[in-house]
Amino acid sequence: MKEIVGKMDATGMRMAVAVSRFNSFFTEQLVKGAVDCFVRHGGDEKDLTLVRVPGANELPAVAQRLAVSGKVDAVVALGAVIQGATPHAELINGTVARALAKIALDTGVPVLNGVVCAQNLEQAIERAGTKHGNKGWDAVTSAIETVNVLKAL
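Above: the chain sequence. Below: its structure as tokens.
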């Protein structure tokens, strides 16, 4: 049996992180986790591009442009959408998730969804660096591994 696995090595990798400014209390923690992960796995900060957008809904358009640019090996989208009294958050989360997955499939560039989808503030806090880890870190980990799996294929 031949098994292909992705190394957890970001050396020489070029990555873009698109982040929503909305709910910046959370998204700034996600950015810190993403940058820390990239550097700890051998990436150079000069090979990391940070792009800020107004909200999660704008992430797919920016991710699309980054993915087709030829300048990055992967794109990570970060945001925080917290459920309120209306189904607005559900609609945004589903639309963004589908769009990011489609961009990855259409371009062949890994596009990772690091958008926190929380029912309340406590859940958002837990996913932005406390007891449930940091979704920014997790998304960059997945990006590094996926880029390396694709290279191995």
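The domain at 38-72+88-147 is CATH 3.40.50.960 (Rossmann fold).
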